[in-house]
Amino acid sequence: MSAGPIYKRILLKLSGEMLAGDQQIGIQPEIITRFAAEIVDLRTLGVEIAIVIGGGNIFRGLAGASRGMDRAHADYMGMLATVINALALQDALEQLGCYTRVMSAIAMDQVAEPYIRRRAVRHLEKRRVVIFAAGTGNPYFSTDTAASLRAAEIHADIIMKATKVDGVYDRDPVKHADAVKFSELTYLDVLNKGLKVMDATAISLCMENGLPIVVFDLSGAGNMRRVVCGEPIGTHVRVPAAPIG
After folding, report:
1. Distance CA 41, CA 35 (A)
2. Beta bridge partners of 93
3. Which has the closest alpha carbon to 232: 241, 223, 240?
4. Which of 52, 183, 195, 199 has the largest CB neighbor count within 10 A?
5. Domains and CATH numbers, the chain
6. Of residues 61 and 21, which shows the higher confidence score?
7. pLDDT computed for residue 241 by the predictor
């Protein structure tokens, strides 16, 4: 097992709900500070880090649409929520001495840079942490899809999807004690079984670009480093190995 990183460039996908902790809404300072410390730890390994963060702890577009709001209008509100979370994470990182850039898919020059792919790659090469905000800038697309798109654009080696469970199961492990955890899946497995890894658009985009995904539990201290260093934790989604012979 390698003691050093096996990935040079990663895209970390964080859900907004994880910032709220048990409050379910808002941002808990102690949680975002812990996440920032783990991200800084990865940076000391020489890993180039990009981040996409959701906004569900503030506002979720689908939830607004389900209550009668226009879907596009609700989704734009959700995109703005991701910008709030991105700025909060930027502040937590910079308080730890980590240079960051927030790049928004929606123009808001006073608080974030516009997303320009070549500029984002240059920031990464300069070892700045880049936080992609406002999703894709378009309604009807989730932050999972934004993560897949940005990861493909910057040629990330892997998408690390941080969750509250230790991988992907065949059913909800909270409700079913006999739920079975998968250590490895193909993209088609995820689509055909309807597994809750990412939405179908995001999975299809990863499949088309051969972009691997690992789903892991962020609540365990040091799990980010373990994934980056190749320890067998979480569930990996990737192209199946070619048969021998």
Report:
1. 10
2. none
3. 223
4. 52
5. 9-237 (3.40.1160.10)
6. 21
7. 54
